[in-house]
Amino acid sequence: MNNDTIAAISTPMSGSGGISIIRISGNDAISVADRIFRSPSGRKLEDVKSHTISYGHVISISSKDKTYGDCETGAGKQGEVIDEVLVSVMRAPRTFTAEDTVEINCHGGMLVTKRLLKEVLAAGATLADPGEFTKRAFINGRIDLSEAEAVIDVINAKNEYALKASINQLSGGISSRIKIMRDEILDHVAFMEAAMDDPEHISMEGHMDKMASDVDKYIEETKKLIKTYSGGKILREGVDTVILGRTNAGKSSLLNLLTGSDTAIVTDIEGTTRDTVRESVRLGGISLNLADTAGIRDTDDAVEAIGVEKALDNAKNAELILLVIDSSRKLSGEDRDIIKHIFGKKCIILLNKADKEMQTDKKDVLNFLSDAGDEYKDIKILEFSTVTSLGLNELEKEIEEIFSLGDILVNNEPVIINERHLELLNKAKTSLEYIKTGIETNAPEDLLTVDMMDAYTELGSILGEEIEDDLADRIFEKFCMGK
């Protein structure tokens, strides 16, 4: 690990805000800050207690002709006051990085923030790489790798469910389960190794039954975690959702309602939407990656026909379909043909224009679905209005139920949202299944210990116990600067 004292701006770099924070971490963090900080009392930061805040000013120590980034800093001289600040001093090991850490809270303009960072670098700090603070927290044992990865997931969370899952991982929800399995696996390996070395005094009698029971438990635990990935992927990336329906059913009006803006053109002219319009929205705590498609109908217009074909292709790959039916008109043959395209899909039918006199109601749709077969029995039907927002809250609840997202908030269960974790869990499960087969076929103990150690290593890679430096570098390179 690079042992330099590092520094970076840890607040957003675009626009202005009330406060900006410059973080310094490393053995010389406090002495670096002392070179540019002046308190009214003259007290040095080296003399203050840990986890305290000191008021004062940052002065310039750099020569006037230097620049930092695109920020001209030549207007001034050494010793001039750059800003009025509050400085937090936190001594190791009770810090995020487990190193001495100083955070300088200055006014939030980019000009003053960059000038201040320039002085910190002139005082002896090195500009931090992206993710380097979190990487140091991992290397110094402050957090494991799965918790470190959760930091960026918290930052990038697009909805409250993703945030909840990331915080659970950051708090050790996944780590704690994996650590328990690894500790027990290691105990089994140690016992078998000891029994093979000293069979006269250590008996294996009864141990295989206990190990077989524990391995079954580990397999079920890994399966349970693996099963959460599909939901975890939706939490992280959102639900790929296609708005489907015939012309003038209100699909574009639904898109505009969900986005809260005039994203799509809405007219009374059939066939207005010809291409797919995409937008990401939050519906309550859920992220939807919406695609508004061309109205489904037979048409001689070549361009519109391409749009219809693209709409049906999008529906094939969708994780959720919102089928919009104009309830102010009778259920048509076109509606029935469109319904056939939602076979086997998660779908919610919205009987739009329910604020008008309804010519098609839930009973009409249910009668058609019952004739169509049991494959459609789980489809949800809601009365809806894009004009009055009737049914909007119910739509949110139905989506939560379809993807079992409410369980995350209620049960606080860990959810796998990282593809790297999924791959390692699958490898660990395979090794555990080899062990189970080996026990059932009376395989030699030394072969069993090989598979046990494989499972131990693969689970350890999730925590970063077994990881190559280049992989760690790639993980932390995805982080933002200053984190």
**How many individual β-strands?**
15
* Alpha plus pi helix count: 17
Query: How many individual domains?
Result: 3
Query: Fraction of residues in helices?
Result: 40-55%
Mean pLDDT: 82
Essential attributes:
six-stranded mixed β-sheet; seven-stranded mixed β-sheet; 483 residues; Gyrase A, domain 2; flat; 15 strands; alpha/beta; Four Helix Bundle (Hemerythrin (Met), subunit A); single chain; Rossmann fold
Describe the structure.
By secondary structure, the chain is an alpha/beta fold. It has three domains: 6-128, Gyrase A, domain 2, CATH 3.30.1360; 147-228 and 416-477, tRNA modification GTPase MnmE domain 2 (Four Helix Bundle (Hemerythrin (Met), subunit A)); 234-410, Rossmann fold. It is 45% helix and 17% strand. The strands form three sheets. Strands 3-4-7-8-2-1-9 form a seven-stranded mixed β-sheet. α11 (333-339) links the parallel β13 (320-326) and β14 (347-352). α15 packs antiparallel against α16 (445-463).
In short:
With 483 residues, this protein is α/β, with parallel strands linked by helices.
Task: Write the topology of this structure.
Elements: E1 6-9, E2 17-25, H1 29-36, E3 37-38, E4 52-59, E5 67-68, E6 71-72, E7 81-90, E8 101-108, H2 110-122, E9 126-127, H3 132-139, H4 145-156, H5 160-170, H6 173-197, H7 207-227, H8 229-237, E10 239-244, H9 251-259, E11 277-283, E12 286-292, H10 302-317, E13 320-326, H11 333-339, E14 347-352, H12 362-372, E15 380-383, H13 392-402, H14 406-411, H15 419-440, H16 445-463, H17 469-477
Parallel strand pairs: 1-9, 10-12, 10-13, 13-14, 14-15
Antiparallel strand pairs: 1-2, 2-8, 3-4, 4-7, 5-6, 7-8, 11-12
Helix pairs in contact: 4-5, 6-7, 6-16, 7-15, 15-16
